[in-house]
Write a structure and sequence with these properties.
alpha/beta, Nucleotidyltransferase, domain 5, 2 domains, five-stranded mixed beta sheet, 2 helices, about 25% strand
Length: about 200
């Protein structure tokens, strides 16, 4: 069984997937600022409804972005942690593939910008929505389609499992974080005397 997470957007999802029988269980919760708790609740539901638990997973998988900086890290951290705990490999898929492998996919980037991934091409960042039919989510998109852990089923043959230690998010741009306007004060070297004046 592959136990998969997607936490890169406002909807967190968990899926248990079998290579032969497909999706055994999946759940989704709206959790714009609580993806970790949502995933743990869904794991409880998975156990209650199917009897399957973390110990049954052969691989832990997660959405590696792009998406919410913190959200992506939640899913990656869950997969890494469970991989370490159970000595299993970990695998990732992009948010694009967890929306659609075969279609042009649009995701929001920074304000007024989008990521556009056409099948077989690298994603580009643009201010224009594509002219061709596309799927995805973001401002101005009429029908929103979110990444889903259950769509790992469509890409099982393409997964490249790795040790948990090296598993990481895939950032397309630098995270939007604030730089302090006033630099932090320099700390004295260990063992040196500090002067006051």
């Amino acid at each position: 069984m592959i136990l998969a997470f997607s936490t890169s957007c406002a909807y967190a999802s968990v899926a248990a997937i079998d290579r032969i029988n497909g999706v055994l269980w999946s759940g989704t919760e709206e959790a714009p600022q609580g993806a970790g708790g949502a995933c743990l609740r869904m794991l409880d539901r998975l156990k209650a409804e199917t009897g399957l638990g973390l110990q049954d997973a052969e691989i832990f998988a997660s959405d590696i972005g792009p998406g919410s900086f913190t959200g992506v890290r939640v899913g990656v951290t869950l997969a890494k942690t469970f991989g370490f705990m159970y000595h299993k490999l970990v695998a990732g898929a992009t948010s694009f593939d967890l929306i659609s492998v075969e279609s042009t996919v649009v995701l929001p980037s920074k304000k007024g910008e989008f990521f556009v991934r056409r099948p077989g091409s690298a994603p580009v960042r643009t201010v224009e929505l594509p002219e061709e039919p596309f799927t995805g989510f973001g401002p101005g998109i009429e029908t929103q389609v979110w990444p889903s852990a259950a769509r790992f089923r469509e890409i099982l043959d393409r997964l490249e499992p790795v040790p948990a230690m090296v598993f990481a998010p895939a950032y397309l741009i630098e995270p939007s974080i604030s730089i302090p306007k006033i630099p932090f004060p320099k700390l004295a070297e260990p063992g040196s005397a500090r002067t006051h004046g």
